[in-house]
Amino acid sequence: MIFDDLKGQLGALGKNGLERRRRTLQAPCGPLARVDGRELISFCSNDYLGLASDPALIAAACAGAQRWGVGSGASHLVSGHLEPHQALEERLAEFTGFPRALLFSTGYLANLGIVPALVGRGDAVFADKLNHASLIDAVQLARADSRRYAHGDLAALERLLAASGAKRKLILSDAVFSMDGDLAPLPGLLELAERFDAWLLIDDAHGFGVLGAQGRGSLSHFGIAASPRILYMGTLGKAAGASGAFVAADADVIEWLMQRARTYMFTTGASPVMASALLASVDLIEQGDARRAQLRLLAAQLQAGLADTRWRLAASPTAIQPLLIGDNFETLRVADALFADGLWVPAIRPPTVAKGSARLRISLSAAHGAEQVARLVEALRKLA
Fold first, then answer.
1. What CATH number does domain 55-286 carry, 3.40.640.10, 3.40.190.170, 1.10.3720.10, 3.90.1150.10?
2. Which CATH number is associated with domain 21-49+289-383?
3. Which residues of 205-216 are buried (b: 16+ CB within 10 A; e: fewer)?
4. pLDDT digits 0-9 by tens, 322-373
5. Catalytic machinery residues
6. Where in the chain are the domains?
7. Cα 29 to Cα 27: distance, rounded to the nearest angstrom
8. What is the pTM of this model?
9. Terminus of the chain with fewer CB atoms < 10 Å: N or C?
10. What is the pLDDT of residues 116-134, one digit of tens each?
11. Computed over its alpha carbons, how large is the radius of gyration of the chain?
12. Strand ranges in 253-318 using DSSP code E only, listed in sequence order
């Protein structure tokens, strides 16, 4: 029976330490979470600047709901594109330095829409092996020739590009890799894109708002100006504190995506409430140097505190601080012990990361205090 097979597979997940647990929060997103009536210090969320519950965003959302209602009512290309959406696209284009921007409901949908709109059968995609699942799935949808290169290996990518006879080429990479916190070699990727006449799609889900001048993202961090070859995708549910995503690019590229990206064309437009809140969020990101400085201080505190433990803290200049443990069950044991001690840190296991590289993914927020990080360090040192 197919149901017996499904039950067997579910049982195998638990047996191998791969079963996920979903917890219901009883408090807003923030450094303090409430789960099952218990208060915990949360190192789980991607709310890197602490904006998810910021009063300015809440006020902007309330004002937006009063003015525009809560639903868009249709897809953007029918009647679901309201003034807040247009204003947000223009603001994001200006903020990132590109001619135009296009909103999507989520970053996953953005990547699923962008890649198949640019390449298809007979074309070629060149992707970092540690790219996010949304980029991996997008390549499968595109049905283009897929070539994956070793993580961050520009020489390997160069060889693949040189050997390709495809008419259209697309290089895909995360900017900040979500499970390691390291940065892609963006200057080298752009140089190869220019030399081999390729598009370059950068997924900056974890860099937008955190890196670069005034939080403008990973391109700004490397001093890279907007280029007609670059498509810059940023998500708005992490450092921006809300939800949604955008792609910024050359004006003709954005027009093409608007006409051909199926995940844009055939889905209801995001709530104007969210667009209203995000307009306030971009202002706070731009003015958020103190928040970003706090993030850097907390990361340095964590790294110094765990430097001599038997577990390795990955070298990350970002808010993502992975503590590599290795074994699935030991990683779960440590995460459960922390949870019992009032500290919530997620255990990340395969297939999200490679076999044998299970880890705690410590996510820092500017809303955390030094005393909260100190408590985490103390607890981890005891467990190690």
1. 3.40.640.10
2. 3.90.1150.10
3. bbbbbbbbeebb
4. 999 999 999 999 999 999 999 999 999 998 898 999 999 999 999 999 999 9
5. 178, 206, 238
6. 21-49+289-383, 55-286
7. 7
8. 0.95
9. N
10. 999 999 999 999 999 999 9
11. 21
12. 312-313
